Amino acid sequence: MSEAAAGRPALSRRNSAWLTIAALAGLYTGQSILGGIAFLALPSVLRERGLPLDAIGLIYLISLPWALKIAWSAAVERYRLPPTGPTRSRLIVFACGLFTLAGLVAVAIAGPERWHLVLAIFIAVAFAAATADIACDGHAVETLAKAHHGWGNAAQVGGAYLGSALGSGLFLVLVARIDWAGATLAAAGLFGLLMLPFLVSKPAPSPGLRTHQPSLKAAFARPRLRSGLWLAALYVAAQKWGVGMLPPMLVDAGLDLETLGAINGLGGLAVGLGFALLGGGAVRLWGARTVMVAALLLQAGALALLATAIGQGGSSPLLLAGLALASSSGIMALGFVALYARFMAIADPRQAGVDFTLLQGTDSIVSMVGGLGAGWVAQHFGYTPYLAGAAGLALLAAPLAAWLTVSDRGEE
Predict the structure, then answer these.
(1) Least CB-packed of 10, 36, 160, 367 within 10 Å?
(2) Domain count of the chain?
(3) Considering the domain boundaries, does residue 412 fall inside one?
(4) CA–CA distances in Å: residue 199 to residues 23, 33, 90, 342
């Protein structure tokens, strides 16, 4: 056999891996457009219309389906992985995508004035998106070799920040220049386009007869996964609890929606994607533990600077926006690439959708609790104590995260 012929299988596997990563990036970007609208754009729009911060905090109820998806993850995974034949990942994503598109049209019709109805629709859409995410995450774990986990997570987190930038930045610009309905319908069209690469991709090859039955019981029986749940809860609290009220804070600082949209869009795109790619390379070079600890220390510093700037008063709104962008896009992208690489390493390939969902569901539960609490704390105590407390939490979490990751290294 010639050297060229011998090299073709490896080259084919590499090409297949990069095609899989690209398709996953498109899907994660599309899903994250929804999060950008719900968690970043909608709070800014509602704050501009005078809604109090504790009411805006209710928006984090949209995270509820992402937390509850643990309950139906095993059923979805058993359907996705039939006893024989190819997986059904694409079918699940297609059905859930259609429901999401219908929900976005309903949101466009309802308008932000009926924010209770918009909130209810987004919660329903989140159920569909969370179900699709089970299939997508399972597909990623079972098709990507360990060597590609860092880049796969860079695509996942980078796609999340790209979608978030589009959903918060471009969406706010369109709301300001056109209207809510036109911006929401444009987001629906973009979401549909971004699903296409995954839907036309080749299904994962069938391993033959599947004898393992995915279940929550099998997941909780693994000490490695239980340790991962503690790591997820700690890390998410330290990284996310301090950024929940940053969009309304910038509105209160004097930024209009169009300016805020441009900063979130262009800035979030450049910073989020850049740091996600940096995270992928850093995880490959130094490992997830080192990158996670570094991101926590950076987050503590960024939030402390924000607390100081707000406490002193008179700071430039653009300076505050830059610090907020570094915290919510750059540092979080860097850290979550590493955290999700740990998730992939922990997940059992025989039921990857269940295991990854448990870990990601912990992320959603902690995010929701923190989002609801952040609105209350900021409303009653002010932005400075809220940001200072979040900075302290990130600083305390760094050594604990390092310890949890060390204790999680061994294979069972």
Answers:
(1) 10
(2) 1
(3) no
(4) 8, 18, 6, 27
What CATH number does residue 176 fall under?
1.20.1250.20
Alpha helices in 244-382 (DSSP H): 246-252, 257-262, 268-286, 288-312, 317-325, 332-346, 352-381
Please provide residue 56's backbone torsions phi and psi, each rounded to the nearest 5 degrees.
-60, -35
- Residue pair 198/67 in contact (Cβ under 8 Å)? The answer is no
Q: pTM for the whole thing? A: 0.69
- CA–CA separation, 396 vs 382, rounded Å? 22
- Token readout for 52 is 């109090």
- What distance in Å separates the CA atoms of residue 355 and residue 179, rounded to the nearest whole number? 41
* Spatial contact of 49 and 112, defined as CB atoms under 8 Å apart: yes
Residue 151 in domain: yes
CB 72 within 8 A of CB 153: no
85-133 per-position pLDDT tens digit: 778 888 899 999 999 999 999 999 988 878 888 889 999 999 999 899 8
Look up the domain containing 273 and give its range. Answer: 3-407
Farthest-apart Cα atoms in the chain, separation: 74
Could you read off the pLDDT of 169-184 as tens digits, one per residue?
Answer: 788 888 888 888 899 9
Determine the Cα–Cα distance for residues 237 and 353; give it in Å rounded to an integer: 23
